[in-house]
Amino acid sequence: MTEKFYEFFNSGFGTALKAILVLILAFVVAAIAKSLIEKLLKHTKLADLKRTDKNGQENTGMKTIELIGKLVQLIVFLLFVPGIFEILGMTQVTAPILALLNTVWGYVPNILFAIIILWIGFYIAKLVRELLVPILNKLEGNRL
Fold first, then answer.
1. How does pLDDT run along the chain (144 residues), one tens digit per residue?
2. In terms of Cα–Cα distance, which of 85, 69, 116, 118 is closest to 18?
3. Which of 42, 64, 67, 120 has its CA 20 to 30 A from that of 73?
4. What is the C-alpha end-to-end distance of the chain, expressed in Å?
5. Is the pTM of this model over 0.85?
6. By CB neighbour count within 10 A (0-12 exposed, 13-18 middle, 19+ buried), where does 24 fall?
7. Which residue, among 35, 97, 100, has the nearest Cα to 68 in the 3D structure?
8. How far, in Å, CA of 51 to CA of 53, rounded?
């Protein structure tokens, strides 16, 4: 019984079925990741951001959050694509996708370090402002 089951999943129809199941899993995981990122970002100050662009249209922070959510969904889905093509035996198609993903993953540490440095710089600037504003007010520095 198990041998027939194994043979079924290694046949053409079984391979296509495995690829479809991984594709469905990719859609579900990507949708969950998008939803989680959007919920997390809605609790930040980004959700309250309102500005007007060059054309006079108002861009809210929610549009930015939706854009970030879609980007996360795309990236998570792209992580599954090479596996789907590998299941289907299309290894030549996966090579450029894997090269793209390797390039993107090469930038991730730099981006994370840049975010950490910006956060630390913002925190230090906030502390310096809190220290200097009272001192400059006492010295009447705003007259200068």
1. 566 656 665 667 778 888 899 999 999 999 999 999 999 988 887 766 666 656 666 667 678 888 889 999 998 998 898 888 888 888 888 888 888 888 888 898 899 899 999 999 999 999 999 988 888 788 876 666
2. 85
3. 120
4. 89
5. no
6. exposed
7. 35
8. 7
